[in-house]
Design a protein that fits this description.
single chain, 120 residues, alpha+beta
């Protein structure tokens, strides 16, 4: 007796009996696995070395409406715009960073250098 019948599992079809081969329908291929030798090949896109990161960002309503009005892919377009800005303004991001608390800033006044102090 087939032990798979006792455990409730479906018996695997016998390759020598074509009447027992399951139909090759959409479900069969969606559940299928692809192997290269012993290694399971995962379906889908390959993983990126630096995948995009989920973040929360506050935008002006008009900016958000404009990008969403462009349709599918609006977030990718927004990412492209930001990447282009960084490429065109090399070094600008470093120059615009706020000063560290307790250090002198690059801006000078008539009274001498400005020092930021931590809040009390």
């Amino acid at each position: 007796m087939n032990t798979k019948l006792l455990t409730g599992e479906k018996p695997s079809p016998q390759l020598d009996n074509p009447d027992e081969v399951p139909p090759l329908d959409r479900d069969f291929f969606e559940r299928g696995a692809i192997y290269h030798g012993e290694k399971l090949i995962r379906p889908g896109r390959p993983r990126k070395a630096e995948p995009k990161q989920l973040t929360s960002l506050r935008l002006d309503p008009a900016v958000l409406r404009a990008f969403r009005a462009m349709g599918r892919g609006w977030q990718t377009r927004m990412n492209d715009v930001l990447r282009d800005y960084l490429r065109l303004h090399k070094g600008a991001a470093r120059a615009r960073q706020p000063p560290q608390i307790g250090t002198q800033t690059a801006a000078a006044s008539t009274d001498g250098p400005v020092t930021t102090k931590p809040p009390h």
